[in-house]
Amino acid sequence: MADEKKESKLRLSEEQQRQYLMALQEVGADRDCQRCGADFETSFGIASGRTAVDLHLSTEPIESYEQNYFEAIIAVCINCGSMNLHATGILDRRASGEVEESDG
Ligand SMILES: [Zn+2]
């Protein structure tokens, strides 16, 4: 049961994938592929699931998945397969207006 709940939280709908692509464009993270030069708008997609990056904060064993990770989405170049991680904590806060735009 807990695994199913975790799985549904990690999966991204097509709409969520589209929203994350838009969020990347809004923050200026929409440059063409750094590996092959493919155009961002036509060659990038968001993987259909979130991922988690483990943070090894101590030498103690990781006790639970929830305690030592940050969640990320993966932007994938569909031309060459290059992948870029973006922390959902940042993108989600921007989308909800919690992060103020900076004028520089
Ligand atoms: Zn590429």
Number of helices: 4
**Uncertain ranges:** none
SSE order = HHHEEEEH
Largest sheet: 4 strands, antiparallel
Strand residue content: 15-25%
> How large is the radius of gyration?
15 Å
Distance between the termini: 47 Å
Overall structural class, as computed from helix and strand content, comes to alpha+beta
Query: How many domains make up the coordinates?
Result: 1
Could you explain the architecture of this structure?
This protein has 4 helices and 4 strands. The protein has one domain (2-95). The chain is of the alpha+beta class. Helix content is 33%, strand content 20%. The model has no long low-confidence stretch (mean pLDDT 83). Zinc ion (ZN) binds at residues 33, 35-36, 38, 77, 79-80, 82. This is HNH endonuclease.
